[in-house]
Amino acid sequence: MTARPAFDKIEIYLIRVLQTLITERSVSRAAMRLNSTQPAVSAQLKRLRQLTGDPLLVRAGNGMTPTAIALQLLDPATRLLDDADRLFSPRSRQRGFDPLASDTTFRIAASDYLDPLFLPELVVQLKRAAPGVRLELMPLSGGFDYRRSLAAGEVDLVIGNWLQPPEELHLGRLMSDEIVCLVADDNPVARSAGTRAWTVERYLACEHVAPTPLHAGLQGAAPGVIDEHLESLGLSRNIVVRSAHFSLIPLMVAQSLLVLTTGRLFCSRYTDTLPVKVVRCPAPFPALTYYQLWHDLTHASASLRWLREQVRDVARGLATHGMVRRRDAASAPNLQ
């Protein structure tokens, strides 16, 4: 019969006794730290000597000193106890991520619909708080199956907007935004938007530019959230341009009669740098809500919980800044 390996006979508490004896260099002090008795710790030291084949602690003057073997065992024993603590202690798992010491890689798939400043601000925030981390930023596109990628652990977090996010995923609401239209300053829409002439019918008949849908449907590209809602109302708009490069669409709008329909926060970033104007959308839309989605696979991860908190804080900070900016603009005197 094959003898069982020595480590099959060792329990975690015995490793704790070993570490405490080496650091305290005293059976009596080790017994006090372990809330045990001196005879019990002496018996455990005897057992440890049999398992290691080394005396571990030897007399030195009026005290005891660890042997060279004992000192070699101290680091492995400490690491083993730390790993066991993370393995079995929920509180330790919750506090087990040190951003300043981490060199982990975060993989985020995100649309740039929320705000053109969002991803740059997020990168700055993450690198400031965790300078050693690496980031892989992937675009959401019609060919990217984010649900499969989350389930397979190929991506840690997905950020975007959905009318109905997938039910099998965890979600965190980042912010909600008003749906508006972005048009060129010289577009006739800009002049009629504040009048009764700016009707739903006229809006639908305009030449629209829209982003390429983020996900594929059963019969090819599924509609984005704007067209999905319009379809639910029995309406459809005249889309003449679809672009996978969402951040370039305001440049197209500025030099054409195209109309972009999206969140106010995104549109407002361009009004100071391009000849464009934000106008109300005459079609009835619910608020545009942005989420971060993640899989149950990573739900308990301390590092990814920290990441989700950073994403939430950056999004809310941008939303708050956007609201202050709109309030200041509304209160400014009209010089025209």
Question: Summary?
Answer:
This protein is an alpha/beta fold. It has helices spanning 12-24, 27-33, 38-52, 68-88, 90-94, 118-129, 146-151, 188-192, 200-205, 225-232, 249-254, 264-268, 302-331, and strands spanning 57-60, 63-66, 105-110, 134-139, 157-161, 170-177, 179-184, 207-211, 216-217, 220-221, 238-243, 259-263, 276-280, 288-294.
Task: Characterise the protein shown here.
The chain has 336 residues and is an alpha/beta fold. It has three domains: 6-88, Arc Repressor Mutant, subunit A (Orthogonal Bundle); 105-176 and 290-327, Periplasmic binding protein-like II (D-Maltodextrin-Binding Protein, domain 2, 3-Layer(aba) Sandwich), CATH 3.40.190; 179-286, 3-Layer(aba) Sandwich (D-Maltodextrin-Binding Protein, domain 2), CATH 3.40.190. The chain is built from 13 helices and 14 strands. It has helices at residues 12-24, 27-33, 38-52, 68-88, 90-94, 118-129, 146-151, 188-192, 200-205, 225-232, 249-254, 264-268, 302-331; strands at residues 57-60, 63-66, 105-110, 134-139, 157-161, 170-177, 179-184, 207-211, 216-217, 220-221, 238-243, 259-263, 276-280, 288-294. Helix 1 (12-24) crosses helix 2 (27-33) and helix 1 (12-24) crosses helix 3. The chain is rod-shaped.
